[in-house]
Write a structure and sequence with these properties.
Helix content: 10-25%
Structural class: alpha+beta
Shape: elongated
Number of helices: 11
Strand order of the largest sheet: 55-56-62-61-58-59
Radius of gyration: 55 Å
Mean pLDDT: 82
Number of strands: 69
Low-confidence stretches: 1-20, 361-372
């Protein structure tokens, strides 16, 4: 019982009649898409390409990407705008509900300066049209053929006017149409007039490039009179919508504004749609067109529809457990062929189904594949192929079988000719002739492409490929068409050749190509969703007379390709804004930038409503990179440009492959100052001046150094004389003489050796500006030893050198320490009691990367020594002065800072107990 009920429900469902919708495809824009209000009073296209909408809440500007909305706070005269028009200066005017005006110029809104006059003199009269006359005079027209004009000085003038002035009108190439309420007057070029009276009042009227008259009814609906035949029955669209205005834009797209439902956009009114099942779970697989019938195939079965009188359609499931695979038309017996994986069915005009034959079990392994291909030859025989065999059937019997194992590749398509068979495969094109297979890829490399479809006529053989576009063979010439020639895609689903016109189906739309040699890319027309197609995934096209049927996965489109032509207007490329760095000098499209402020941003838009946001952009900056760059972005940014001259070129390409005019922007970036000839001259002069100054100063320094050196040499000689004073030499020689008289050969020899060694060392050291600490301390040691012997060992001495002082590496000026040692002995120690134990200590240490030399004695101190003023003291004081002067000159010559410090030593009772001299040297190496 349950099975019977389920079967009954299934039969009812399969026999269900469904009304077919046959209307142009359209887009609907509402507040959800960005419009400020659902009530649209006027839709208008400005000369620069933007589409403007007068709404119940200000105005909106649309560029195919987004809506920009403006209201009273943007300086509109009213928030309710009822009309838009453009004057001869391309200034846009907006009419408020209260008849006040505002206008848009230089990207800003301004209020009409005589709006107060409008409010006080005109608002109560309810004009039906407002226009700008010459010299910015505003004219308000009224239904009673009267008009009020406000001139540029604000003066009001009244006049009567003819219907040509106060009726709305549209001009075409061969006629002018005037309309008011329910009347239309058509004036041809011969001044002949034809009057039409309609049974409804007109709210809007437009005429497209195919001369269709499109009329909006105040009571509701959009009526289309084909080819301008106002006496014929119109096609009716939007029957429930109150149409307020109509715009046929520059691309022949139709915009319809409504009282409460936003705006409708029809890319192509003449493209009709058959998409009755688009909302169901059925997915259209393929279709064929016979006489007045459209037969479509879905996974569940086959639907038949009479499109001439819109009669019923029925969904009938084929009596086969396998899903349908393909539909074909047999011209011989005028029947439709439906193919499944197990059988071939014939469907006659009365939609009766008959199984032509079943595929035999022995062929199941051959034909049980999802991509079976079928072809019908001129005798009505059926050919079926896969990658192993090609079999011909008729009357449920096999006629011929061809072994295709040699191909070793999948077959996409095949074409039966008079004497041969062409096979499109994964490896390219093969030909079967005279019982043999030939690979044509060896003849031409283009035939090595994966071929998915084949069409031919007396002039051409055309191949569609899987990834490489179209291959056209014409006599001995073979050429290829790809996306760079204007095709929408290089992956071809199918092709249809009618005379010399080729229709190419792909997953990106349909391309119509006029085959000719040499090929001209302007001969390609592309159709996509933005052209009015239901879907871009096109399976195939079918040509019947002058009608092309486009079969997609979502339904069928059709249009007359002979009487209707696609509008291939160029995209309108607009520079919205150019942001140059501060300080740029601008003159039209010329930009002069400073080198340190060379950033540059261009904001642009390509207006092409059939492409919507699918417009592509190409740009190049000549002078930096001469290659064209492709982008979908509407901004180009250069954060920093090197100095030089550039030309930024920008183009827009529509989805139909049409390019806009090129916009050229000229950019000049200044050279940095250091690369200018002025800077170079300054540098050269500076180098000359600096060089002169350098050599001049250097010469002076050299002269000064030589002078200082001579003074030092003189002082050093004086120091040598002072150090080796006659008194010291006489005493030393007298000491040697006494040793000799006492017959003390050993001490006299020793003393003489030390004395001669000192003399030799002093003479040797005095030849140099710097000597090692080692040499200087050896001379000081010998000097103190001789003096100790001469004064009968009345004092002891000590030289202490710290480990961190490298006595071989570090150097000091010669003969600079000896005067302080001599001063310590003669004035400090020799003024003490002769039984006093005198001490002299010379030490060297390293502190803060400087050499510190200390001379310490335990003599009477500087104060008492100063009192004991004798000739000896005078001589030694002179030696100290010479040493001090030497120090100053050495510092000046070597840019050093040798310093000398004296410290008086005292005991706890503040009695003098000696003197400490600290000599601070920089490190000389």
């Amino acid at each position: 019982m349950f099975k019977q009920i389920a079967l009954s429900i299934l039969v009812i469902a399969l026999m269900l009649n469904i009304t077919f919708s046959q209307n142009p495809s359209s887009y609907k824009f509402t507040t959800d898409d960005g419009l400020p209000h659902q009530t649209i009073f006027k839709v208008f296209q400005a000369s620069n390409g933007y589409v403007w909408f007068a709404t119940g809440l200000g105005v909106s500007r649309y560029d195919g990407y987004k809506f920009e909305n403006f209201a009273k706070y943007d300086n509109l005269s009213s928030n309710i705008i009822i009309d838009i028009f453009e004057d001869k200066t391309n200034t846009l005017w907006f009419v408020g509900e209260d008849k006040t005006l505002s206008y848009f110029k230089n990207n800003r809104f301004y209020k009409y300066k005589y709006n107060a006059i409008v409010k006080s003199k005109i608002i109560e009269k309810y004009p039906n049209k407002v226009r700008i006359l010459d010299k910015n005079s505003v004219c308000y027209y009224f239904d009673n053929k009267k008009a009020i004009t406000i001139n540029s000085a604000g003066k009001i003038e009244k006049k009567l006017c003819s219907y040509e002035e106060h009726w709305e009108n549209i001009k075409t190439k061969d006629a002018i149409y005037y309309w008011n309420k329910n009347k239309i007057i058509r004036e041809t070029n011969s001044i002949a007039k034809t009057n039409f009276t309609l049974n409804y009042n007109i709210s809007a009227l437009e005429i497209n490039v195919n001369r269709d008259i499109i009329i909006g009814s105040e009571s509701g609906g959009l009526k289309i009179y084909k080819k301008g035949n106002l006496n014929a029955e119109p096609q009716i669209l939007l029957s429930k919508e109150r149409v307020t205005s109509i715009l046929v834009d520059k691309e022949d797209g139709t915009w319809v504004s409504t009282n409460s439902s936003g705006v409708f956009y029809f890319p192509m009114l003449y493209v009709e749609s058959y998409n009755n099942l688009s909302s169901s779970n059925f997915k259209l697989k393929t279709a064929i067109i016979n006489d007045n019938e459209i037969i479509t195939m879905y996974c569940n079965g086959v639907i038949k529809f009479n499109y001439s009188d819109s009669t019923e359609e029925r969904l009938i499931k084929l009596p086969d457990s396998c899903a349908t695979q393909g539909l074909y038309y047999n011209e011989t017996n005028k029947s439709t062929i439906a193919l499944t994986r197990e059988s071939i069915f014939s469907i006659d005009k009365n939609f009766k189904i008959k199984k032509v034959f079943s595929l035999e079990q022995k062929y199941n392994s051959i034909y049980d594949v999802r991509d079976k291909k079928i072809s019908i030859d001129e005798n009505g025989n059926y050919w079926i192929a896969d990658h192993t065999k090609l079999v011909c059937f008729n009357n449920n019997s096999k006629i011929k079988e061809i072994d295709l194992l040699e191909l070793k590749s999948k077959i996409y398509t095949f074409c039966i000719g008079d004497k041969d068979i062409l096979l499109g495969t994964e490896t390219g094109l093969w030909k079967y002739i005279n019982d043999s297979l030939y690979y044509l890829g060896e003849k031409n490399n283009l035939y090595k492409e994966e071929i998915t479809s084949i069409q031919y006529n007396d002039q051409f053989v055309v191949f569609g490929t899987l990834y490489s576009g179209i291959i056209v063979s014409m006599k001995d010439t073979v050429y290829q068409l790809k996306m760079n020639n204007g095709l929408l895609s290089n992956s071809i689903n199918s092709i249809d050749l009618k005379d010399n016109t080729l229709w190419v189906s792909s997953n990106s739309g349909v391309s119509k190509i006029y085959l000719d040699m040499p090929f001209n890319s302007d001969e390609i027309e592309n159709y996509t969703k933005t052209s009015g197609l239901i879907s871009n995934k096109i399976q195939k096209t079918i040509i019947k007379d002058s009608i092309v049927y486009v079969i997609s996965n979502k339904g069928i489109n059709s249009f007359n390709f002979v009487s209707n032509t696609i509008n291939k207007n160029k995209p309108i490329l607009i520079i919205k804004d150019i942001i140059a760095a501060k300080g740029a000098k601008i003159s039209q499209n010329n930009y002069h930038l400073k080198h340190n402020r060379s950033s540059f941003v261009v904001d642009y838009i390509g207006i092409n409503f059939k492409s919507m946001s699918g417009v592509k952009y190409f740009y190049k900056l000549e002078g930096l990179d001469n290659r064209w760059q492709k982008t979908n972005n509407t901004k180009i940014s250069y954060p920093s440009l090197p100095h030089g001259n550039y030309v930024l070129r920008i183009e827009a390409e529509s989805t139909s492959g049409v390019f806009s005019d090129t916009i050229n922007i000229y950019i000049e970036v200044d050279k940095p100052f250091w690369l200018s000839w002025v800077f170079r001259l300054i540098v050269i002069l500076s180098i000359l001046i600096i060089s002169y100054t350098f050599f001049s100063v250097r010469s002076k320094i050299k002269l000064r150094k030589n002078k200082i050196k001579r003074i030092i040499d003189s002082l050093q000689y004086q120091a040598l004389n002072k150090q080796m004073n006659p008194h010291f030499i006489f005493n030393s020689l007298n000491s040697i003489h006494n040793y000799i008289l006492q017959n003390d050969v050993k001490n006299s020899s020793k003393y003489l050796n030390k004395f001669s060694m000192l003399i030799r060392m002093v003479l040797d050291n005095s030849q140099h500006q710097l000597v090692s600490i080692k040499k200087e301390t050896e001379a000081i040691g010998i000097y103190m030893e001789l003096e100790s012997n001469r004064f009968k060992d009345r004092f002891v001495f000590n030289i202490d050198i710290k480990d961190e002082v490298d006595i071989y590496l570090y150097k000091i000026p010669p003969l600079i320490i000896q005067p302080f040692v001599e001063n310590a002995i003669w004035h400090g120690l020799m003024n003490q009691d002769k039984y006093f134990d005198g001490k002299v200590k010379v030490s060297f240490s390293l502190e803060n990367k400087r050499i510190i030399c200390k001379v310490i004695d335990n003599g009477v101190g500087r104060k008492k020594a100063g009192i004991l003023n004798n000739e000896k003291q005078k001589n030694n004081s002179l030696g100290i002065k010479i040493t001090t002067r030497r120090k100053e000159l050495i510092n000046a010559l070597n840019n050093s800072d040798i310093s000398i410090k004296y410290i008086d030593l005292h005991d706890k009772s503040n009695q003098p107990i000696g003197t400490e001299v600290i000599i601070n040297f920089p490190i000389f190496i």
